[in-house]
Design brief:
Helix 3 packs across helix 4. This protein has three domains: 36 residues, no CATH class; 65 residues, 5' to 3' exonuclease, C-terminal subdomain (DNA polymerase, domain 1, Orthogonal Bundle), CATH 1.10.150; 36 residues. It has eight helices and four strands. The chain has 159 residues and is mainly alpha-helical.
Length: 159
């Protein structure tokens, strides 16, 4: 995963008058799993406990540290649910886990640059996903007027 790819430069810290430098960062799954002493399946279970796009609230009262501790102790959600019934897991956790571990993907696609349909982008991002219309319009205008879009590649950030 690449973190902060679209955010470069300085960022103001929340509730402070301090700024920090932001640079793109590569997060490697194998290193993250090793650092947390988790398997990929256990990382998905941690995500389910703290919340994902498919269960945004997670389990009430469980944050990242508690979730990792619980998965270290019980191994997986089924064991946790059996041994700690006071922790209320969604009945959907099997389906959510499947989305992450066995996603429906295709390799039948091609990518081509075309000018974005501004109305459709705004309808999707702002109307359906609650993004800021002003920010979306600014991003679209930068994308349209940047003549050298092909001159910058992902490799240039990490070369």
């Amino acid at each position: 995963m690449v973190k902060n790819l679209a955010i470069t430069g300085r960022r103001k810290l929340p509730r402070r008058d301090t700024y920090v430098e932001i640079q793109p960062e590569i997060i490697e799954l194998s290193k993250a799993l090793q650092g947390l002493s988790l398997t990929r399946e256990q990382l998905v279970d941690v995500g389910i406990l703290i919340g994902t796009d498919f269960n945004p609230d997670g389990v009430k009262g469980i944050g990242p540290k508690s979730a990792v501790k619980l998965i270290h102790e019980y191994g997986r959600l089924e064991e946790l649910a059996q041994r700690k019934p006071e922790i209320s897991l969604s009945s959907e956790f099997h389906a959510i886990r499947k989305i992450f571990l066995d996603p429906n993907v295709t390799s039948n696609y091609s990518l081509q640059w075309c000018k974005p349909d501004e109305e459709k982008v705004i309808a999707f991002l702002c109307g359906e996903r609650d993004f800021s219309e002003d920010r979306v319009k600014k991003a679209i205008s930068r994308m349209i007027v940047t003549p050298s879009r092909d001159s910058t590649t992902l490799e240039s950030y990490f070369g």
